[in-house]
Amino acid sequence: MSKALATLCLGCQWRLLTRSALAKPMPALATAPLQRQAIRRYTSATANERSPIHPQADALRRTIHGKMRSTLGVASVNDSISPKATYVAVVRLARQLQAQGVPFDAETYELLLGALSKNDRADEILPLLHKMRADDVTPTFQFFHKALHLAAGLGDSELQARILEKMHDYKYPMTSKVYQKLFFCMRQNGELERALDTLEEMKRKSIAPSVSTLGLVFDIAILYKEPKIAYDLLQQAAASHEHETFHTHAIRMHHELLRCAATNGSYEVVKKCWREGILGKRCEPDEGLITQILFVAADHKDPELASQVFRAFGEHGYTYKTHHFETLMESFAALFDWKSTFRLLGVMRSRGLKPDKRLARALMKPLTADSGQVHTACQALEELYTEENAVDVVAFNMVLYAFAYKNQFEICPKLGVDPNVETLETLLDACIHARKVAEGVEYYNSFAERGMQSQTAMSKMVVLACTEEDYEIAFDYLEDMKSRGITPLRGCLYRLVKKMAETDDDRLPLALDDMAAYGYEVTPFLNEHIERWKERHHPTEEPLEDIVRRRQFVTRYGAQ
Question: How far, CA to CA in Å, does 558 sit from each of 165, 479, 545?
Answer without folding.
Answer: 107, 21, 19
